[in-house]
Amino acid sequence: MSCHDETCVTCSDAAVAVTVVRLLERDLALVDTGPGREHRREVVSVALVEAAPGDTVLVHAKEAIAVVSET
């Protein structure tokens, strides 16, 4: 089943674009959620993608699922 709206049909959640700040051990990365009310840094898994610091990735459920722009 594919998603056609802004939210995932299986869990009603959306992927979020974030910027990779630093790669960590065990396929993890520190990411920046960007400007706004909920601006913060989070640790997410990058095991499914080849990301580098500065890349923008889509994250769903703390898992990077796609690289959308590379540095």
Tell me what you see in this structure.
The protein has strands at residues 16-23, 28-32, 41-45, 56-60, 63-69. It has a single domain (16-69), classed as SH3 type barrels (Roll). It has a five-stranded antiparallel β-sheet with strand order 3-2-1-4-5, with no helix packed on it. The chain is 0% helix and 42% strand. A hairpin with a 2-residue loop joins strand 4 (56-60) and strand 5 (63-69). The protein has no helices and five strands. By secondary structure, it is an all-beta fold. It holds the Pfam family HupF_HypC. This is HypC/HybG/HupF family hydrogenase formation chaperone.
Task: Show the helix and strand layout.
Elements: E1 16-23, E2 28-32, E3 41-45, E4 56-60, E5 63-69
Antiparallel strand pairs: 1-2, 1-4, 2-3, 4-5
Organism: Microbispora hainanensis
Pfam family, one: HupF_HypC
Protein name: HypC/HybG/HupF family hydrogenase formation chaperone
How many structural units, i.e. domains?
Answer: 1
How are helices and strands ordered from N to C? EEEEE
| CATH domain fold name | SH3 type barrels
Based on helices, strands and strand pairing, what is the structural class? mainly beta
Strands ordered across the widest β-sheet: 3-2-1-4-5
Number of strands: 5
- Unreliable sequence segments: none
Helix content: under 10%
Strand percent estimate: 35-45%
Shape: globular
C-alpha Rg (nearest Å): 12 Å
CATH architecture: Roll
Tell me about the largest β-sheet.
5 strands, antiparallel
Quaternary state of this entry equals: single chain
The number of helices is 0
Mean pLDDT: 84
Alpha-carbon distance between the two ends:
32 Å
What is the CATH top level name?
Answer: Mainly Beta
InterPro entries: Hydrogenase_HupF/HypC
Pfam families: HupF_HypC
Protein name: HypC/HybG/HupF family hydrogenase formation chaperone
Family: Belongs to the HupF/HypC family.
